[in-house]
Amino acid sequence: xxxxxxxxxxxxxxxxxxxxxxxxxxxxxxxxxxxxxxxxxxxxxxxxxxxxxxxxxxxxxxxxxxxxxxxxxxxxxxxxxxxxxxxxxxxxxxxxxxxxxxxxxxxxxxxxxxxxxxxxxxxxxxxxxxxxxxxxxxxxxxxxxxxxxxxxxxxxxxxxxxxxxxxxxxxxxxxxxxxxxxxxxxxxxxxxxxxxxxxxxxxxxxxxxxxxxxxxxxxxxxxxxxxxxxxxxxxxxxxxxxxxxxxxxx
Amino acid sequence: xxxxxxxxxxxxxxxxxxxxxxxxxxxxxxxxxxxxxxxxxxxxxxxxxxxxxxxxxxxxxxxxxxxxxxxxxxxxxxxxxxxxxxxxxxxxxxxxxxxxxxxxxxxxxxxxxxxxxxxxxxxxxxxxxxxxxxxxxxxxxxxxxxxxxxxxxxxxxxxxxxxxxxxxxxxxxxxxxxxxxxxxxxxxxxxxxxxxxxxxxxxxxxxxxxxxxxxxxxxxxxxxxxxxxxxxxxxxxxxxxxxxxxxxxxxxxxxxxxxxxxxxxxxxxxxxxxxxxxxxxxxxxxxxxxxxxxxxxxxxxxxxxxxxxxxxxxxxxxxxxxxxxxxxxxxxxxxxxxxxxxxxxxxxxxxxxxxxxxxxxxxxxxxxxxxxxxxxxxxxxxxxxxxxxxxxxxxxxxxxxxxxxxxxxxxxxxxxxxxxxxxxxxxxxxxxxxxxxxxxxxxxxxxxxxxxxxxxxxxxxxxxxxxxxxxxxxxxxxxxxxxxxxxxxxxxxxxxxxxxxxxxxxxxxxxxxxxxxxxxxxxxxxxxxxxxxxxxxxxxxxxxxxxxxxxxxxxxxxxxxxxxxxxxxxxxxxxxxxxxxxxxxxxxxxxxxxxxxxxxxxxxxxxxxxxxxxxxxxxxxxxxxxxxxxxxxxxxx
Lengths: 250, 637
Description:
The complex is a heterodimer of chains A (250) and B (637).
Chain A: E1 3-9, E2 18-24, H1 33-46, E3 69-70, E4 73-74, E5 96-100, E6 109-111, E7 114-115, H2 118-127, H3 147-157, H4 164-168, H5 175-186, H6 195-208, H7 219-223, H8 231-249
Parallel strand pairs in A: 1-5
Antiparallel strand pairs in A: 1-2, 3-4, 3-5, 6-7
Chain B: H1 15-22, H2 28-31, E1 35-39, H3 43-55, E2 58-62, E3 80-81, H4 93-103, H5 110-130, E4 155-156, H6 162-180, E5 183-186, E6 189-197, E7 200-208, E8 214-218, E9 221-224, H7 245-252, E10 257-258, E11 263-269, E12 292-296, E13 313-314, H8 316-320, H9 330-342, E14 354-357, H10 359-365, H11 367-385, E15 394-403, E16 406-407, E17 420-422, H12 440-461, H13 473-492, E18 496-497, H14 498-512, H15 519-539, E19 540-541, H16 551-575, H17 599-602, E20 604-609, E21 618-623
Helix pairs in contact in B: 3-6, 3-12, 4-5, 5-12, 10-11, 14-15, 14-16, 15-16
């Protein structure tokens, strides 16, 4: 099949970007979206033009590196699918496809479709962990965790940190990302002593880094390639209110 | 030269404890004066950087990804082994040790493997303490599953995303240290050279992948945790960015490369769909717990799977290996699949595939149970192939997945360059000629959390901190050389893209240095690779400049190294006139097609020394001695 692409090109964070038109020809439906872009890039190289820069790595939907807004939707039209797992069989001959980077205040564009997502790492560094030293821990089966709690923790822990939730949110909010980590750890008996500190530090960092607030659009859940649920944001709010109250009382 | 692995003496079970008694310690107040570089932030790198930072050393960590959470360990699906014996099915540290040694076809060091088996239990404890959400039963206890090459259930798992969860655990420990200021992280940077001063590793040269700036970092010791080299085959299950550059450039600076021919071809991957294919996707080996592998009994049978009656199917693994059946080790399962496809009995496009059929398990356990166990894998399979594996069997075919070879290290994980330590898949030490499933995560974390913190202190305690700084001429020379190389790439302006060269190299490697190898094929590879390399340096086209983010330039450096490294692999494979584990030489097989080892002549580690890009490398040996297990023919029948 043949497609017309409009792709965001931007030399660097300081320079202005623009949409540019390309043709993708002879595309097989078995190709992944990124393999389609590989092909376009090979053609650009043949014509001595600079290929389109885009982030990608594992190409199996787990590393969270790929990050493109396709026809206005982060990760494209398929539900629960990262760009790298999106296949061309979901497009039709003659389609026009618009490809843009994540757009959010906290994610400056580095080049073309590549953005800087280090603000997400900062949120984790502020408290998204259990403070345990290496060694000197008790036997793994000394914590008994109800299966349903372990399952919920795992549902939340599946977040791949791609940032689609932020790109989808009209407020550029990182609430779903933060909520996933807070919920994962809040479901477990380990690390409870620092739970209050954790949720306060993480939410504060979230605001410092320029992420907006949640106003219940639920766009994040719709865009999430791993199906992380907005109910975790309720859990985050609950943990936060509890912590703020307890800290006040202390 | 005969290499000495420096394994401690004494009974097997006491070696590691004895070693720890003998290793020198660094005074807590002095630790902050020592700087350690960690390259790579997968399981080995993240756990090492976190643990070393926690101890009080100054740590600088580097990764090419945009975040340390994205190392390719994240893609490991199935699980992690530990000798906990929670199911009471007869497991023990010795049994895990024995299975790993046997799985590796008796080509690994006893002392290392025993240490790994011992530490396996600590790793599970550590991960649970970090909040890794392993699967649990209804009473709240940890669950286990079976994996290839073992008859006990000792694999811990977090759905089909065990690597992700363990890496996020290590990443959270690392993040905590970054927040505390003990670790400085440099994402989007790539190591391009190792700096060696007076025989010791003193730092690295790095390219900032965003600004293009080439800069250096000096340290008292360097840890390489940069993964394996399966991308030498172009198509593999590795991430697109996985490469051999850091390890290869250390090799060029004097670190010996051990057993490069030991590569693992994983039996359960989704078959290639066409020329456009950029990478291959693994389907976890755990699927072989409930899936049955078969092909039509008749050559060229093109009927859809449902129309082939039971008595016209060949469940070849169950037939050939009745006691391990579908859970035969990876090398054996892969070779068997290749065999039946070579016989013309393969299925799917191009007839390079075999069925992995869940119909029996679905009938026995119900679709729900299968969905619970492997739901995400079935989903992934459907995304890629548009086929529903609940209704029709999956098609699978072997693909390059893991590399057992790596930089040579002694028992302390130190390479032949003093002060250069190598961890995880990047080293060679624990898996011999074949790695068992669920052992890679175990090894990366054992190296990072528990071994390196103990052994690096011994190295540092004998040295004065901060003796060499980045002002040393060796750093300036190295930067100049890297800049020259960058300019060379950009100025060739030939006709073929970097990817075309990589693809071509991959074909040479897969055809001649892949799943089965012969003297003729290896000879062909040794002719074709240097020719392709020469063409690369004449005819490659790298667009853009060195002053900005330039992904073509990144690839060019990696492919240039693969073009030399492929030759090293072929030399190693050609010299090893035996078949063992992942290295199968057609000339050396039993009458029924099994690998024929030659313990008389090849019971050693081959460690290669660089002698120039166009010269044959020089081989050194580390003899392997087995005091606790008997070398036997590996039988899974």
